[in-house]
Q: What sequence folds into this?
């Protein structure tokens, strides 16, 4: 039986360039985290320390440990690295074992009978990238850093939300594997469903230490077993599991997982084993043409889905620090917000098994980008062979996971070629098209034909249409954030919105930790350093000024209002696009998470704190959503029903003035069939007139009179004017402390009330975000982690929209 020995202890790091004193090294880890642990560099996440550690990326680094001979009785011993970041030479007592140049692959070296000093020498990623650029020629990209010239996590070179911290190190586990006769080298599980039965085909590759021994593989799943002979180095086992329970996305059913056990045998003696969990489900991507253009709809087990998605970036710029528990926490936050699709973005990594395991268990569908983003990538060697090798390895590695439903060739590179002046700059040089339309679809079709592949995001399906045409395939909506008001989201109905977003600063406690001692202001040195977007603050200010009078010199108001604006912007897009299902079949918000403390598009900041946008997503991505839509001939209330049951009941409409007077009301019937959208026209006499009026729509099952947010009902509000023009009354409300929270009772209209719980205590959290109260209504906000509750302190952490000054 194969024996596995982790190599985690006894590593040292020599700095710089292999000289100097040795430091203790953590494996898995990276140079930055080892230097940080040794107190040799400041925390790059704090203040402007990022600039102080830039030198680390320009040096060569050496890891060393002792490789000792293990127990006898084995014919082969392999040294296995699950991940090396990125360009390295591996030596044993000075004898070269091999050279590597890809962060996204694993590596295996035969060290049978060998022992001695194991050395891993890492070259500077900058030096390697610049050498490849010199050999292959310049390629355009969205950023000046040379990330497209080597197979490494692109965003370690910085992004418009991330620091430039270019890593090196043994970032995934390393071990010794000892075995005899043969080992399981690869298992490729093809999982399908046919006539109510689960079918699994296990294509098995083995590696032999010698020739000739007859081998058998036996597989068991769901109480069913089967065997097959190994013909040379390959064999296939096929099993049929009757009456299989289907795996469903969250909100559509359960997520049953089946254990698959595969054993490699020689005359009934076990040589090796392979264990994974699988889920039985079908998935296809409907890209058929229709009257609106070209669709892009995920279909799971025959059920057409509106994808309620978020984009995922690496949760730490140092990925080796992301634990199984951290993955689980972040993905549980996504599920709790109503998310059912997580797109693993192409500037990051193929995540660890812990990520996909959590998605399997939580019912989160995974859209997996291949790691290409925002640049023209050379297709010549040494990159081309690495691209195919990493694709083959990771496609097979991730195949068991039922959560994985889509492979995507790249992020924004097809669009960039057409619109970002790449085509003339390239002058015929390779730029990646051969990967996205050639190599990658071929690898997926060969190895994983059970899952769909799309060439890129955005992508219209072919060069017959513009790559980012909203009427065809996937669309990225960035003109709104970059140049216009978020009301622009309402101007079209894309078939699938794979990226859109609006910035806001992180939570106040996150800023205080990240910028110690700084007097906070939108343009203070630390705030500007932790704003990586081009003209990010300018876009925040312009976006804010369209709705609110600028809060001159008041950082706390600026902080609150920019977070309000972020939540409202995303709400504007999602409400509009969901109300146009099935023409629009999904929204994937940019972005769920952050990799450090920064002003960004994230719903959860770099310290894991939930911004108001996160809580707004819980409303926007609920099975049922109520929204008011302006059309040519008036207002319409749209009832978006993604639940499995029909939605019927009264709809209470009220035209109100901001002083609380009800000007008119009606109770038309509401009807929305399961998985559909129902609409109700608003009578002309209930349409708000002027900035001092607004419309309130309360659906059947609304909270009892005087309560908001009890979870029993839905409300939509329509204000016809921007806040800076609305004559709001001075907000008046009472605050009382209740067990595990506070209750706020409104005496006037209170719009977008927000408890910033982290101002009460850095560890405190609230169970809701923005809420608007009509006069006489109340809301109870649950609070955890608040050590000394009192109403005055609570009031100091409560913010709401105030009348124009």
A:
């Amino acid at each position: 039986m194969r024996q596995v020995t982790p190599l985690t202890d006894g590593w040292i790091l020599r700095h710089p360039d292999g000289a100097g004193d040795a430091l203790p090294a953590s494996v898995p880890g990276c140079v930055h985290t080892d230097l940080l642990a040794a107190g040799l560099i400041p925390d790059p996440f704090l203040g402007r320390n990022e600039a102080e550690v830039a030198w680390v990326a320009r040096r060569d680094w050496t890891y060393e440990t002792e490789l000792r001979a293990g127990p006898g009785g084995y014919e082969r011993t392999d040294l296995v690295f699950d991940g090396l970041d990125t360009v390295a030479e591996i030596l044993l007592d000075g004898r070269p074992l091999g050279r590597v140049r890809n962060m996204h692959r694993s590596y295996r070296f035969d060290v049978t009978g060998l022992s001695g000093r194991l050395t891993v020498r890492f070259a500077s990623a900058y030096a390697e990238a610049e050498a490849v650029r010199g050999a292959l020629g310049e390629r355009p990209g969205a950023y000046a850093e040379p990330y497209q010239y080597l197979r490494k996590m692109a965003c370690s070179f910085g992004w418009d939300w991330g620091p430039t911290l270019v890593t090196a190190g043994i970032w995934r586990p390393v071990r010794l594997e000892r075995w005899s006769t043969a080992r399981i080298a690869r298992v490729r599980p093809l999982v399908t469903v046919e006539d109510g039965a689960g079918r699994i085909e296990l294509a098995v590759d083995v590696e032999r230490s010698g020739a000739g021994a007859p081998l058998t593989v036996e597989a068991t799943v769901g109480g069913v077993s089967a065997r097959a002979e190994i013909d040379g180095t390959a064999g296939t086992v096929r099993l049929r599991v009757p009456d299989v329970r289907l795996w469903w996305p969250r909100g559509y059913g359960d997520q049953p997982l089946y254990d698959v056990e595969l054993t490699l045998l020689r005359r009934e003696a076990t040589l090796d084993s392979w264990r994974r969990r699988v889920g039985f489900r079908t998935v296809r991507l409907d890209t058929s043409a229709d009257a609106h253009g070209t669709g892009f709809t995920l279909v799971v087990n025959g059920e057409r889905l509106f994808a309620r998605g978020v984009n995922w970036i690496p949760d730490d710029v140092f990925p080796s620090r992301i634990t199984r528990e951290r993955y689980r926490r972040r993905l549980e936050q996504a599920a709790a917000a109503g998310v059912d699709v997580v797109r693993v973005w192409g500037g990051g990594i193929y995540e660890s098994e812990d990520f996909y395991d959590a998605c399997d268990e939580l019912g989160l569908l995974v859209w997996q980008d291949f790691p290409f983003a925002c640049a023209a990538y050379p297709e010549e060697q040494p990159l081309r062979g690495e691209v195919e090798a990493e694709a083959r390895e990771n496609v097979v590695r991730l195949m068991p996971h039922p959560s994985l439903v889509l492979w995507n060739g790249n992020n924004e590179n097809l669009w960039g070629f057409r619109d970002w002046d790449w085509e003339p700059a390239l002058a015929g040089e390779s730029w990646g098209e051969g990967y996205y339309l050639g190599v990658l679809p071929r690898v997926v079709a060969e190895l994983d034909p059970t899952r769909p592949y799309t060439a890129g995001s955005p992508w219209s399906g072919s060069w017959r249409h513009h790559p980012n045409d909203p009427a065809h395939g996937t669309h990225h909506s960035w003109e709104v954030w970059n140049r216009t008001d978020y009301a622009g989201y309402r101007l079209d109905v894309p078939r699938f919105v794979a990226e859109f977003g609006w910035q806001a600063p992180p939570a106040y406690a996150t800023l205080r930790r990240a910028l110690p001692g700084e007097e906070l202001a939108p343009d203070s040195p630390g705030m500007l350093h932790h704003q990586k977007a081009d003209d990010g603050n300018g876009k925040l200010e312009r976006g804010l000024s369209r709705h609110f009078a600028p809060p001159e010199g008041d950082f706390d108001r600026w902080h609150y209002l920019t977070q309000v604006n972020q939540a409202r912007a995303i709400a504007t897009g999602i409400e509009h696009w969901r109300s146009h299902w099935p023409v629009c079949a999904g929204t994937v918000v940019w972005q769920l998470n952050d990799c450090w403390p920064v002003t960004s598009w994230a719903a959860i900041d770099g310290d894991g704190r939930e911004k108001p946008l996160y809580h707004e997503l819980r409303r926007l991505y609920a099975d049922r959503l109520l929204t008011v839509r302006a059309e040519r001939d008036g207002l319409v209330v749209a009832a978006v029903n993604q639940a499995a049951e029909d939605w019927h009941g009264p709809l209470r409409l009220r035209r109100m003035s901001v002083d609380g007077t009800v000007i008119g009301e009606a109770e038309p019937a509401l009807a929305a069939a399961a998985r559909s959208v129902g609409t109700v026209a608003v009578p002309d006499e209930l349409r708000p007139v002027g900035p001092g009026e607004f419309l309130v729509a309360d659906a059947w099952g609304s909270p009892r009179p005087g309560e908001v947010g009890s979870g029993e009902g839905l409300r939509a509000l329509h204000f016809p004017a921007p806040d800076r023009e609305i004559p709001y009354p001075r907000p008046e409300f009472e605050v009382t402390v209740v067990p595990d929270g506070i209750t706020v009772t409104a005496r006037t209209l209170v719009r977008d009330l927000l408890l910033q719980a982290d101002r009460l205590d850095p560890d405190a959290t609230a169970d809701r975000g923005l809420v608007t109260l009509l006069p006489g209504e109340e809301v109870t906000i649950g609070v955890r982690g608040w050590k000394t509750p009192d109403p005055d302190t609570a009031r100091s952490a409560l913010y709401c929209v105030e009348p124009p000054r």
Summary: Confidence is low (pLDDT under 50) at residues 701-711. The longest helix spans residues 555-578.
